[in-house]
From TrEMBL:
InterPro entries: ACT_dom, HD/PDEase_dom, HD_domain, RelA/Spo_fam, RelA/SpoT_AH_RIS, RelA_SpoT, TGS, TGS_RelA/SpoT
Database matches in NCBIfam families: spoT_relA (TIGR00691)
Protein name in the entry: GTP pyrophosphokinase rsh
Enzyme class, UniProt record, top EC level: transferase
PROSITE patterns found in the cross-reference section: ACT, HD, TGS
Catalysed reactions listed for this entry: GTP + ATP = guanosine 3'-diphosphate 5'-triphosphate + AMP
Domain HD: from-to ranges: 45-144
Role of this protein: In eubacteria ppGpp (guanosine 3'-diphosphate 5'-diphosphate) is a mediator of the stringent response that coordinates a variety of cellular activities in response to changes in nutritional abundance.
């Protein structure tokens, strides 16, 4: 543990103008306030904030950050308040401490909600001042170093998993690779102790057997570059156990099959020497095609810059080499901390522009599970590079599609997307992008995100925006159903219902506005009786409890509503426009539409029945057919021709029975309405290839 004078001296070494008195006061303050508190290791509790402050001095951060590190646990674990911090150390330190402080109520939440709420508060604080993140990462790193002292294995597992899922990826995204690697190693040891022990043991065996091979390869690289007149530093190391385990898992290979366990780093004097060194290495040893990456000309989102290549050394040994300048190396290891981005008031632009996406995800995520899912996508995936037609560069996770690209450019562009050109060619929206693709997004007036997009988009920002848009559309369409139901409910009330009665009803039901009322009616969160009583109190007193409250005088049209949003077409009977239909409505669920003769309706006794109609010009649904063909060559092709002639698309074809001389199929076909479906059935029955055709 750093002593008081040692901490102050470390700060004064790189910042002679630092307020020595304030640093001393903060050191004494944290020792006094934490008092006799102990950590799980048995050490005094104040040793933890002092060690965190020491980590901040290693990064040469300003005095406010050092003081924040010293005080970051006082509000949570002692009687100190934010107001006390502000009175003693100023508003800036108080704001930073408040941003880092973990609220005690979070610990009482379920695990996913706690992690999500912690992350939500964390991201919002980061967007205001990146120093909050730097202190928090140092706090988590020191806690991971002492994790083994915690007695409860389930608590160790939870902390390790949270570190692996959230804090290590965040460290990577701000370029603090040294922190990321150590967090991953410590978390991996706890989460996968057997794998960690096995890989560590194998690495020790390699070390004992290689006879100084790492040093020999490093020396050979240095000599090859020196002979070409380059002054460089070369170091070599084995990859970390977690990195090796990742490769084993991703490639489904054993430890022996991981060929690039050794990694070497070449530090040059300037950027031009980086490219010269790469050329010399590629002409001295065979390099592996597809393994070269130029992060100098095209840095990563977090500012990381380096050349990466893989070489085949003697005896067919694969080695990885990273080439960078000393300035790049310092930046790559400690990221934003190395350049003090906050001193330039660069809170959410440039190198931390990705924070804006995270904040948008915080705003649009519906619940804890969504927030964690979308955020992990946003902060923990390998990247590709794609361009707009005007040359603007965007970094995206591997596997991203044109829809992900559109949302990366701007949320409004993503919401209006109807198509895309990749390198000048029209391509399906689900097409994965490759490095260097030029993507042109085609917008459409009145376009809306499709629920099916969630099946192929990969970025957290896109998923969050699509889900939010679909939820808003669902709410509007359910409210539309509720409005139609409300008209019938109001007609049964013994009074004329005007705007004042509706406002009074909304107030009695404790709702925010008419749309909330209509949504509650449409989603069956309110019964007819509750609505009537809210409109005219006492009007239901003389009515019997057994009255059929859901009785309708006329059918409700579903024209204009979107299948899969406000209602779903039942897959048991596959109703199509022209069929007589009814809807089953359960609380909090979308309306399930059945044909009137569906046998499954017998199971809907406990639900609210809605008499529905398709509405004028309703068209488009999936009809299901059972078709039996004669088992001879060409009959399947003839059946396909009948569907084509009738301009229908077959979405599913399943062989259900093979009983010579017949073959039976179950077919789902997109049809306009009942008449269209009947024409197809008639055409099938008229064919010599078809023995039987029925709707099911």
């Amino acid at each position: 543990m750093l002593r008081q004078y040692e901490l102050v001296e470390k700060v004064k070494d790189y910042d002679p103008d630092a307020d020595e008195a304030a640093l001393n006061r903060a050191y004494v303050y944290t020792v006094q306030k934490h008092g006799a508190q102990k950590r799980a290791s048995g050490d005094p509790y104040f040793s933890h904030p002092i060690e965190v402050a020491g980590l901040m001095t290693d990064l040469q951060l300003d005095e406010q950050t050092i003081i924040t590190a010293l005080l970051h646990d006082t509000v949570e674990d002692t009687l100190v308040t934010i107001e006390d911090i502000e009175a003693n150390f100023g508003s800036e330190v108080a704001r930073l401490v408040d941003g880092v402080t973990k609220l005690s109520k979070i610990e009482a939440m379920p695990e996913d909600e706690r992690a999500a709420e912690n992350l939500r508060k964390f991201l919002l604080a980061m967007s205001e001042d990146i120093r909050v993140l730097l202190v928090k990462l140092a706090d988590r790193l020191h806690n991971m170093r002492t994790l083994h002292f915690i007695k409860k294995p389930e608590k160790r597992q939870r902390i390790a998993r949270e570190t692996m899922d959230i804090y290590a990826p965040l460290a990577e995204r701000v370029g603090m690779y040294e922190y990321m690697r150590e967090m991953q190693a410590l978390a991996f040891r706890e989460i996968e102790p057997e794998a960690y022990a096995t890989i560590t043991k194998r690495l020790e065996q390699l070390r004992s057997q290689d006879g100084g091979q790492v040093d020999a390869i490093a020396l050979a690289i240095k000599q090859a570059l020196a002979e070409a007149g380059l002054k460089v530093e070369v170091s070599g190391r084995e990859k970390h156990p977690f990195s090796i385990w990742q490769k084993m898992s991703e490639r489904h290979v054993s430890f022996e099959q991981v060929t690039d366990i050794m990694a070497f780093r070449v530090i040059t004097e300037n950027e031009a020497d980086c490219y010269r060194a790469m050329g010399i290495l590629h002409t001295t040893w065979q390099f592996l095609p597809g393994r070269f990456k130029d992060y100098i000309s095209t840095p990563k989102n977090n500012g990381y810059r380096s050349l990466h290549t893989s070489l085949m050394y003697e005896n067919s040994m694969r080695v990885e080499v990273q080439i960078r300048t000393r300035e790049m190396h310092q930046r790559n290891e400690f990221g934003l901390a190395a350049h003090w981005a906050y001193k330039q008031h660069d809170k959410a632009d440039g190198e931390v522009g990705w924070l804006r996406d995270l904040i948008e995800i915080v705003d649009t995520s519906h619940d804890a599970e969504e927030l964690l899912e979308h955020t992990r996508m946003a902060i923990y995936q390998d990247r590709i590079f794609a361009f707009t037609p005007k040359g603007a560069l965007f970094q995206l996770p591997k596997g991203s599609t044109s829809v992900d690209f559109a949302f990366a450019v701007h949320t409004d562009l993503g919401l209006a997307t109807v198509g895309a050109k990749i390198n000048g060619r029209h391509m399906p929206l689900r097409t994965p992008l490759n490095n260097g693709d030029v993507v042109e997004i085609i917008k459409g007036a009145g376009a809306e995100p499709q629920l099916s997009w969630l099946g192929f988009v990969v970025t957290g920002k896109a998923r969050a925006a699509i889900r939010r848009a679909v939820r808003l559309k669902e709410r509007a369409e359910v409210a539309q159903i509720g409005s139609k139901l409300f008209d019938e409910i109001a007609a049964r009330v013994p009074a004329r219902i005007g705007k004042k009665a509706i406002r009074d009803a909304i107030e009695r039901l404790d709702m925010d506005g008419p749309e909330d009322l209509m949504f509650a009616i449409g989603s069956a969160k309110l019964t007819d009786r509750e609505v009537m009583e809210a409109l005219v109190p006492g009007c239901t007193a003389d009515l019997g409890e057994d009255e059929d409250w859901s009785a309708r005088e006329r059918a409700i049209s579903i024209k204009g509503l979107t299948p899969g949003v406000a209602f779903e077409l039942a897959t048991c009977c596959h109703p199509v426009p022209g069929d007589r239909i009814v809807g089953l409505r359960r609380k909090g669920e979308t309306v399930l539409v059945h044909a009137i003769d569906c046998l499954e309706l017998a199971n809907g006794i406990d639900t609210d029945w809605l008499d529905l109609s398709w509405g004028k010009r309703s068209h488009g649904a999936v009809g299901r057919l059972s078709v039996t063909l004669y088992d001879r060559p060409g009959t399947l092709a003839e059946m396909a021709g009948i569907f084509a002639q009738n301009k229908t698309n077959v979405t599913s074809l399943v062989q259900t029975q093979l009983d010579h001389p017949f073959t039976s199929y179950e077919i789902d076909a997109e049809v306009q309405d009942l008449a269209h479906l009947n024409r197809i059935i008639s055409a099938l029955r008229a064919s010599d290839a078809v023995a039987q055709a029925e709707r099911i």
